[in-house]
Amino acid sequence: MRDKKYGLDRPRGGYYNCLSVVCSMKLAGFLLLLAGWGIVLAAVGLLRSGPPQSGFVLAGTGVEVLGLALVVRSHRIPRPRRG
Amino acid sequence: MTPAPALSESAVAVCIFLIVLVPFAGAGLALINTGLGRSRSAAHAMAASLCVMAVAALMYFICGFAWQGFAGRPAHVVTLAGKTWNWIAAEPLFFRGLKLDGSPASLAALLQLFGVGLAALIPLGSGADRWRLGASCASAALLAGWTYPLFAHWVWGGGWLAQLGVNYGLGRGFVDAGGASSIQALGGLTALSITWILGPRRGKYALGGMLAAIPGHNAVLVLFGCLLAWVGWLGLNSAGAILFTGAEFGRVVLIAVNTTLAAAGACLAAAAITRIRFGKPDASLCANGWVSGLVAASAACAFAGPAEALIIGLAAGALTTFAVELLESRLAVDDPGGAVSVHAVGGLWGVLAAGLFTGPNAGGASGQWLAQLVGIATLLGFVLPLTYGLNWLLNRSYPMRVAQEGERQGMDLHELGAGAYPEFITHSEDPSLPS
Predict the structure, then answer these.
(1) Comparing C-alpha atoms, which of A6, A41, A10 is closest to residue B167?
(2) ipTM of the assembly?
(3) For chain A, which has fewer Cβ within 10 Å, the N-terminal or C-terminal residue?
């Protein structure tokens, strides 16, 4: 089975059956990115300067990193198997 | 950030001189992108660079400046919990209302006209050999007309990021003198989006599970591009620091020293790492390292000391070298020009470093790192989804990737009808031969 876009020999099934999973991962990743930014904005706007504010900003950034990891993973091209 | 006060005539002349150096950075990036691509797409890469810069300048003139504005000029403000959040400028379209007379706002508009072109050039490196000319121009229009002005307003136009210091006591607010965030990281994140949307070049990941090395076709172009970029960055960082952070003219010396030391450190770090790992220094990674040093130095160039700039550069060179390998081999991001590693990773590092290494000149260490972190969170949490979403929608209505035949034939022949090197057709590039 040959993928038209990338010219890769793909194992039958695998990639195409997972399209919905990939899309969900991508969507979830972007939503996490936005949610993390929302946490950061809320921390800046609602909390006074100090450890709680820093903690929430760091937590929001952490949520963004998780979102980025999901988005990156959803865009990984499955490698053709050897042999 | 403090807007620059009215400038004397000699100061305006110096500022204009610094600003007209900025197109050299664009020329450098265009040469780097071209040299790191395939020979059969070289003319296309240079033509795309020119077209993209033209589109970016036009869009910035039409609506970009209207939404970016300048500190102290009209803007839309929202008040939350008694604090003002400045979201977007409220200037008229087509530069109306802006007197092009050497005022700080007009000089900033001129600098941005070049800066937006620089940001639009960055994604070309990641989409090399497969990104259609029309689609790259349309993407540049989105970047220059919407993404860039909005974020640049927050950083340089007196927006909420710049006011984090005044409103919330976070250091001096988000600090970025030369555009590590608003030009470089924004361009780098757009490059990442483009790479994801386009997918890898045909044959890149096809050899039995091993990735194929597709080396750049002209290392001389790449390395000469680095030298041109150096000149451009000296102007960009100096003019940006004067206009957007209110740095005195005497600081231009410090800025030039910092910019050069960061680039030198990054280049040498990349050379040493590749020498240790692969036995010989890698020319393209040294070039990427050099540019990543320039990128990383941009944010803190007016505030950090020379030793700190060198450390920023050394770290940028090391980060870029490892990021190139990680993205290509582990994350399947086919980025021929290294735009994501150099501009996104280098830019984000530079922004963070500005918080970690800036001294009392930047308002002291208290809260500055937090302001920088809020800026990074905004780039990742807002700019990346925005630029990805816009380009994804564009791709749905106007497919970005060239047809299979065009990729096999080469972008030069397929899109322009003539190659960059007509007398040097090699066996593998001969379109009459089977691929």
Answers:
(1) A41
(2) 0.91
(3) C
